[in-house]
């Protein structure tokens, strides 16, 4: 490829051969990366500080210039981009809720990019629009809404899906806000549990409610909502977010209890199942979302627990018509009513976006390839592994566990801290342990796991298992690695 | 692949060989599709009605089932998905603002999917985060902000970028809205020209301003804003959106004029350059955005005029700190302050999203491959072609043109209408011409172009040229095709 430049590629005359050659060389780089991703003898990452990458690494220069680079250099850039990145599909990558590299999903994404189209109309995305419709219906059936009736849309992530739920609820109760603004409504109050995802707070700020009108409900040690906290004084309670799979613990709010209160006070019930929604695929574990069928809306991110590549998040709404009522603006240049096909398939006006990325295909293709039953096995396997880790470290003196949920949260206690009396000094020292281990872990590049403080709890590890490549030996590797790196702290 | 299923692929034991074989077969399907996309002897689409695709086409069944399908069937599904889709990269696809299939951009997307990571932290997207930062700075320099200072983020499309501008403006003038909600502010009014994109209206509804507090400014025949309409009575004017490249006409509002008024009334000036922002890359055409450096924020979608694959949209903000001030919630589980690297590179808290798709890489890679100069050539070529079409049909009796802008908008007049006197009957008949031609065009699958009514104007064609594969002969083909299909109407 040495002699070629982008102008030699299609649509250039005689561009077919160099185009095919170039794409195959790229694929060669990518398949090599895929191979290495699953190879436990490779590192999860090759860590560098920002200033190091910015200064340029052996011919990898991030700066953009006026003149074109050769395709040979472009291939080098591709290789280097992967080299200095993080292998999120590596069996020992446990750092996020989204991990893994599903091969079918990957193929689906490659096809999606090649099709390079937009979800707003049936006109230019006929197949994808129908796939979205069928898949959303299937998800609503699994939630338990009669005949899978209702509405929904795939959105760019769980935060936006949650934002949709708040917007849709507001439109349901106060449709005049759409035209007259928030001043047309009384003071509206939203509720969520204190361990819920911060996107509910972002939505309350963005949509004009104000974060002070979002009331955080206290939770007990098992992170269940104290439902009686929902009762209110002097403003209009409108919306409750129940979390199905909290971000840190993977805990589940008691949906039935909350649904009772929502019915009593005529509030919208949203279930944020961004993380835990996947459990609905498992006959063994779906009971954790008992009552979800009573929700008015549900966020469910197949890109998390179900292992679909990023991004793939759905907002599902029980009542038909509210989502479009809330968002439609009937732009004439896009949604012409006089097309030759049934324009009810032009779904774009439901969205707050105009153009919308095709997030459905990879998910649909994975579903075809795995079957419903394949997702169930995947979920069951992840929760088994999580339970394995929990029981394995439960009795270790080097570990202090938080309550058991989908995620396994724990403090690693280096010998020097183990016998210290509880108190500020111990807390201060313990707070520094996880960041220190994490830094060493990233520098050695062997594995990755997240940590955070939560409420009055100092930094602890959050172990998430959603990676289909992970096995018990990888869990063992992680705990050994924490021990190895943390023992002398 | 006949005998294999998804469970035989990596991470399965001995999964490497079938994985590589499967991915290469997928790539074979995709490269064939790429080849055909640029082949003018292939159709742009093979149109089917929704009910036809839903009933199932020769073994292409969209329904999801409980049991897995073989990889052989998955490959068939991939082939069929492309077969019944629309070739948006075809040289004769003129239907949207986003067209074309850039090979480098495509390779970039394939790599992005393979890396399968998330933009929220440097921790898991070190290279992409830096690329985003450098590219945004470059874009700000091109806008003309001193030293490229300021802030910005890539967002899931122009509508969300525009929404960011309104949110950021509100935070700048009324930061208390973040915590106290819209009732803490006086009645706020937003302005936009009547031909601006409908996302400004969507934002005013979603963010709690209300669409009635968005004032549409009338425009004259050349679609310039009547700037004196901006003066106001009895509420707080806060925000003006100036459009740089309107959706239908591709017209440009006079930014300097509007900036003067914004300064006088202390309003935020946003320039929606989703469509027209690309002209900033061209020394010949950037004068159409004269004054853009006076904007407080700019939307600029490289996935439109610059031919980057979907999605790639940036919101750029002149003042540093407002964007993060507006959106940050400091989620401890994601943005730990005690990491080992400089956490100012963790950009996720600026976003209203939590997880964020990597939209930067394909753009960065295209910039490397084309150079700044390559984008300039592309823009100049598109505008040349647009001018070619305009002058070509200007004197044809079968065509009535709307004023010349970036897009070429026109009515096709079949012989039976040509000599009719102006009046309701002529209007009614003319209104039906474009939809009818478009329907025939889609059924024959030869080319695609958009149409819409606008204000008091009945349906007319909107010809957009952003496809690098299009040549004069394709423009000729389109006009001939319209004549062929419309002559006897």
UniProtKB/TrEMBL annotation, chains A, B:
* Protein origin, superkingdom: Eukaryota
Q: Name one GO cellular component term.
A: cytoplasm
Q: Which cofactor does it need?
A: pyridoxal 5'-phosphate
Molecular function as annotated in GO:
glutamate decarboxylase activity; pyridoxal phosphate binding
Instruction: Give residue numbers for the modification (N6-(pyridoxal phosphate)lysine).
Output: 304
Q: Where are the transmembrane segments?
A: none
| Keyword field contains DNA repair | no
- Entry EC number(s): 4.1.1.15
GO biological process, any: gamma-aminobutyric acid biosynthetic process
Q: Does the keyword Iron-sulfur apply?
A: no
Which keywords fit this entry according to its UniProt record?
Decarboxylase, Lyase, Neurotransmitter biosynthesis, Phosphoprotein, Pyridoxal phosphate
Query: What reactions does this protein catalyze?
Result: L-glutamate + H(+) = 4-aminobutanoate + CO2
What is annotated about its quaternary structure and interactions?
Homodimer.
Quote the function comment for this protein.
Catalyzes the synthesis of the inhibitory neurotransmitter gamma-aminobutyric acid (GABA) with pyridoxal 5'-phosphate as cofactor.
Assigned protein family = Belongs to the group II decarboxylase family.
* UniProt protein name: Glutamate decarboxylase 1
The scientific name of the source species is: Oncorhynchus mykiss (Rainbow trout)
């Amino acid at each position: 490829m040495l002699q070629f430049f982008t102008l030699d590629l299609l649509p250039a005359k005689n561009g077919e051969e160099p185009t095919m050659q170039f794409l195959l060389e790229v694929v060669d780089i990518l398949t090599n990366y895929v191979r290495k991703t699953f190879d436990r003898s490779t590192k999860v990452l090759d860590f560098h500080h920002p200033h190091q990458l910015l200064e340029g690494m052996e011919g990898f220069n991030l700066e953009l210039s006026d003149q074109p680079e050769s395709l040979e250099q472009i291939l080098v850039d591709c290789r280097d981009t992967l080299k200095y990145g993080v292998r999120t599909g590596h069996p020992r990558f446990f750092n996020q809720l989204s991990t893994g590299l599903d091969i079918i999903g990957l193929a689906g994404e490659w096809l999606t990019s090649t099709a390079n189209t937009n979800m707003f109309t049936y006109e230019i995305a006929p197949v994808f629009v129908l796939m979205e419709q069928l898949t959303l219906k299937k998800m609503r059936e699994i939630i338990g809404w009669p005949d899978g009736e209702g509405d929904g849309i795939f959105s760019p992530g769980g935060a936006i899906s949650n934002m949709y739920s708040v917007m849709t609820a507001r439109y349901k109760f106060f449709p005049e806000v759409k035209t007259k603004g928030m001043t047309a409504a009384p003071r509206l109050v939203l509720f969520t549990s204190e361990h819920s995802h911060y996107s509910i707070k972002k939505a309350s700020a963005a949509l004009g409610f104000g974060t002070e009108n979002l009331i955080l409900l206290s939770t007990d040690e098992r992170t269940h909502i104290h439902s009686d906290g929902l009762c209110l004084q002097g403003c209009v309670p409108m919306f409750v977010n129940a979390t199905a799979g909290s971000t840190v613990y993977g805990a589940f709010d008691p949906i039935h209890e909350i649904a009772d209160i929502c019915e009593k006070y005529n509030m919208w019930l949203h279930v944020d199942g961004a993380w835990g929604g996947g459990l609905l695929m498992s006959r063994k574990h779906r009971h954790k979302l008992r009552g979800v069928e009573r929700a008015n809306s549900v966020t469910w991110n197949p890109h998390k627990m179900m292992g679909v590549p990023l991004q793939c998040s759905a907002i599902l709404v029980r009542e038909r018509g509210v989502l479009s009522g809330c968002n439609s603006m009937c732009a004439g240049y896009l949604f012409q009513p006089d097309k030759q096909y049934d324009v009810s398939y032009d779904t774009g006006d439901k969205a707050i976006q105009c153009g919308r990325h095709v997030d459905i295909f990879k998910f649909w293709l994975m579903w075809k390839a795995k079957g419903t039953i394949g997702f169930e096995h995947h979920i069951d396997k992840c929760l088994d592994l999580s339970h394995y880790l929990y029981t394995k470290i439960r009795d270790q003196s080097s570990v202090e566990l938080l309550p058991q949920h989908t995620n396994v949260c724990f403090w690693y206690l280096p010998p020097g801290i183990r016998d210290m009396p509880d108190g500020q000094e111990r807390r201060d020292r313990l707070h520094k342990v996880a960041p220190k281990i994490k830094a060493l872990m990233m520098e050695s590049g062997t594995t990755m796991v997240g940590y955070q403080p939560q409420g009055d709890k100092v930094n602890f590890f959050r172990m998430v298992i959603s990676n289909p490549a992970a096995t018990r030996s990888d869990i063992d590797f992680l705990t050994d690695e924490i021990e190895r790196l943390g023992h002398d702290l």
